[in-house]
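Student: Hello, beginner here. Can you help me understand the protein record under this note? Any guidance would be welcome.
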Amino acid sequence: MVKVRAARPAEAEDLTALVMRSKAHWGYDAAFLAACAPELRIRAEDVTARRLVVAENGRGEVLGVASLEGTAPRAELGLLFVDPSAVGRGVGRLLYRDVLRRAVELGVRRLVIDSDPHAAGFYRAMGAVAVAAAPAVEADGTALVRFEAAPVPLADWARAWTGGGRAVHLGNVGEFNAQFADATLDREQRPAHHYACLAAFYSPYPAALVLPRPVPRGWTELVCRQLGWTGVEVYDDLLDADPGLADAVRARPALAALLTGAGLPLVPWGRTRSFGRLAGRPWRPGELRYESKSAAHELFGRILADGGHPGIVLPRQWRADGRWAAARMVAARTRAGESTVLKSEHGVGGSGTTVLTPARVRAAGGARAVLRRLPRGPLLVEEYVGGAASGADEGARDLTYDGFVDETGRAHEVGAAVMEVVDGCYRGATVGPGVVPAWVEKPLTDFGTAVGRELADSGYRGWFDVDFVADGAGRLAPTETNLRLTGPSVAFMVAARLDALRGAGHLVRIADRVELGARLPEAQLDELCATLARGCAELGAVFVPAIPTGAFEPAPWLGVLVAARSSEVLDAAEALVRAEALAVGAMFGPS
């Protein structure tokens, strides 16, 4: 186990020797090293003045040294050297992250790094940004590469979410869905158990993950490495078929006592009666009533009736008494040339939502023919919000606002995201600075905040989001609330962690389904994910596998997160991931 500690003045001579060995590792000749020696020498008085720390192993052997120099708001990473014997073992990463952590504590908001050209790839992978500035030079005139990072503390909302500490994450996606008994939801909850893997990201830094199905060990190891987590316990394979994960934990008294007795927050995907029993939290009747799409529509109408939300429009919605009543409504709208959205009360991720254009209805043989193919159950018929943003905002039609209500009843704003929605089905989301068009931010945030207040007053406690569609006239239409964690919420959690770990400014994209060319054995899946992590790092991006278990399905897929500091790098990283996933899968034959 490698740990970081403060350097000691008596170590100055040994640390100088380590620095020179590290410099020589890059193949510089003796004359160059001799010219660098005065600048790289560490004196006893430097240890405190330059804020030196060292990384040492369990045997007390020093493996690396780093310094944080200057005063807030601007400081410098003066030294970061790793002994050649420890290169590639994560020592440099550990030291760099420690420097950023200490910089935050000192109030530093701009960290300057003048890097040896050989180390430029490392700093790029760590999230530092190359800047156009007059370069510093080595003793022989070699130009150094200047980078900067923006150290920031964990976001205020993220500290409020779990009290600033770690949490136990319960992947009860299937259990949450099952309580609604919606006809559009898979009875076996197989997709839900895959999405339970997102429990890794229910807060910025978990203490334990509780999962219904087994997950690959290599997956958890890579996620922990990418996000700088240590000491994360994983309790998986707790269910055979039944979706009740909280009850499965309660059936193991020792595990239940371990998870609930540590004094850590217990964070579920969503609230259920079973979770209330496990957490010792009273279940409030009607707590999830606004998970219903018709109830949410009524809530939106009440908020808009009070005024104060210009630019927000509410699509009309009707409840159909049965399938044929819905068919008659759709047929009438089709004859009028109007598109229609059919919704179930509790479909998730777009399941139970169907967009019907007049052309699609006619091609299917009429409204009755369309509805005959849909799952049975109550249906909502909703006006389709037409049009699309154009120009720079072309991809920002589907948006979402995320927030949560804490146990005291206070609503907190998290932020807004742009979602990828295809034919009514959610496929992913992107969060981060500049992602949401400027014209959208205020009306979206104001309305989402108003929904949060209403949810708090209704007795709801937990995470929520409000989904919107933007039309071609610059208006927003709220379409539903989700009283649970979501794909965008996972992206917000990862962005908060990466900002605190690597410096501010991360864009994070969650892509629900990256298709694989074939089912991969577990070892090959681990190898693919390691390759993707290296490839993204070379671009200056971060790759995190989010849902690994879909890779073992007959039609294999992988859920992923990618992060970067610019939309161009983010797009390039996603393209790399998708291409490599198909290419590596193809090596194992067709699905």
User: Anything to note?
Assistant: The chain is about 35% helix and 25% strand. The first helix runs from residue 12 to 24. Residues 216 and 522 are 7 Å apart (CA to CA).
